[in-house]
Amino acid sequence: MATEFTPFLSLAGGILIGLAATLLMALHGRIAGMTGILGGVLPPFADDWQWRAAFLAGAIAAPAAFLVAGGTIPFAVPVPVWAMVVGGLIVGIGVHFGAGCTSGHGVCGMARLSPRSIVATITFMITTGITVYVARHLLSIGVA
Fold first, then answer.
1. Whole-prediction pTM
2. How far apart are CA 128 and CA 125, in angstroms?
3. N or C: which end of the chain has fewer CB within 10 A?
């Protein structure tokens, strides 16, 4: 499967993610870890569920507004549904035992120079590389 190199769009997206994480930390003293934010709006609700719901609504509304404005988001899933389900379960287990997700550790934790987040980020980056290699080259999953 070929991938498209989009350095300017990627840079813009990274800037927006960094800005959102910085504003959330500066204005609310909270880390922008998506699984932690989502967990607070699921029963039992966190005491501060309102800002969590607003953050998630914005994460959904922004791409929706982009589409309404006439933008397009090319999307293709090169793997079978069973592989996505298995991958989602594995990621969920990793988030639980790693005490956070890629956004919490990779964006916010790394920016704070948290040793735990640095180790977590190195671990999930290495694991991702191994997983892609095994899935594509040894199991031929997601190869057209």
1. 0.75
2. 5
3. C
